[in-house]
Amino acid sequence: MAAIRIFISSVQKEFSEERKALAKYIREDALLRRFFEPFIFEELPAINLSAPESEGAIAWNDPAFGIDWQIPASDVILSEKDKHHPLLADCKDLFDYSLDYYAE
Fold first, then answer.
1. From CA 90, how far away is CA 44, in angstroms rounded?
2. In three state form, how does the secondary structure of the chain look?
3. b/e per residue, 61-76, with b = 16+ CB within 10 A?
4. By the 8 A CB rule, do 99 and 70 touch?
């Protein structure tokens, strides 16, 4: 059985040492290291990669959500990417409701 990679996360710098200590503990524990491979941002090289296949969004002003943003659409500032998100109604293949993800 391959070890499961787990990400030890916290946005606070104050917990940097705790994240490192937890990762070290998991790696040094005979039982835990059989099942888990921890990683933390401090140990990863800085690279500039994106994964567009894992990104997705719905148009911010989709009427299906019924949100009154109380601002004219002409005043909203969006990135070029965010200007082209589809409406929820146009995303039929976004979710496959025929799959039972909890079936054993």
1. 38
2. CCCEEEECCCCCHHHHHHHHHHHHHHHHCCCHHHHEEEECHHHCCCCCCCCHHHCCCCCCCCHHHCCCCCCCHHHCCCCCCHHHCCCHHHCCCCCCCCCCCCCC
3. ebeeeeeeeeeeeeee
4. no
Q: What are the domain boundaries of the chain? A: 4-43, 56-90
- Contact (Cβ atoms closer than 8 angstroms) between residue 40 and residue 23: yes
Q: 4-7 and 36-39 as β-strands: parallel, antiparallel, unpaired? A: parallel
CA distances from 8 to 26, 85, 91, 95 (A): 11, 31, 33, 28
Structure tokens at 56: 């997705």
Q: What is the pLDDT of residues 1-55, one digit of tens each?
A: 788 988 888 767 778 888 899 999 999 999 999 999 998 877 776 666 666 666 7
